[in-house]
Amino acid sequence: METQERILIKAHELFMRYGLRSVSMDEIANHLGMSKKTIYQYYADKDALVDGTIDIEIERSKNDCTGHRNQSENAIHEIFMAVDMVQEMLKHMNPSLMFDLEKYHPKAYKKFLDHKNKFFHEVIKSNLEWGIQEGLYREDIHVELLTRFRLVTMFFMFDKENFPASKFTPGQVIAEITDNFLFGMATAKGQKLILKYKQQRQKK
After folding, report:
1. In which residue ranges does the UniProt entry place its DNA-binding region annotation (predicted)?
2. What is the DSSP annotation of 93-156?
């Protein structure tokens, strides 16, 4: 593995585990057993490392979402697979990560927002259209409005002001919001599937 790749992979691992603000360039260098000077040969500053970390996450989310679409039985199943992925990601992700990104690394945060507003928007919209075609979502739903609604509410799990960690886990927030989102637009046929997938997950 090349030195540049090693540096980025280790920085990504540490940022995800401890948050962005609490990991210094010294700590990254110590974990890698190299000098800060070596890191600076490849990355101008911490911002550049955070930027590279966001690139990893964007690429991962694209691959995961494409995989979900290819493997899912139907539109509702696709959403449950996505929530499973998020729940797994949350086990290895420091809850302060999004807050740190927005506050201390605005350039990387903008890159993430662009990804959210383009790629995730398309994934959600496509899912809603698919669900309508299958008769799982009501035909009268406003696709564009609900796409934007879903985009906003997906990230409520990081909103510590309204959903403090002392009362709710991020996993609880995304699961509860998703249930209400799905039941709100599902047909009778769709609601049976929602209950089926929920029961399957309770048995795990």
Report:
1. 24-43
2. S-TTHHHHHHHH-HHHHHHHHHHIIIIIHHHHHHHHHHHHHHTSB-TTS-HHHHHHHHHHHHGG
Sign for the pseudo-dihedral over CA of 30, 32, 33, 34: negative
Q: What is the CA radius of gyration of the chain?
A: 19
Extents of the domains making up the chain: 50-203
What count of other Cβ atoms lies within 10 Å of the Cβ of residue 162? 8
- Judge: domain 50-203, CATH 3.30.420.10: no
Contacts of 202 (CB under 8 A, 6+ apart): none
Token pair listed for 170: 């991020």
Q: Which residue's entry shows tokens 């998703």? A: 178
In the structure encoding, which two tokens stand for residue 99, read together? 């807050």
Distances (CA, A) of 70 to 31, 63, 95, 152, 189: 38, 11, 30, 25, 22
Question: How far is 12 from 19, CA to CA, in rounded Å?
Answer: 10
The structure's pTM equals 0.92
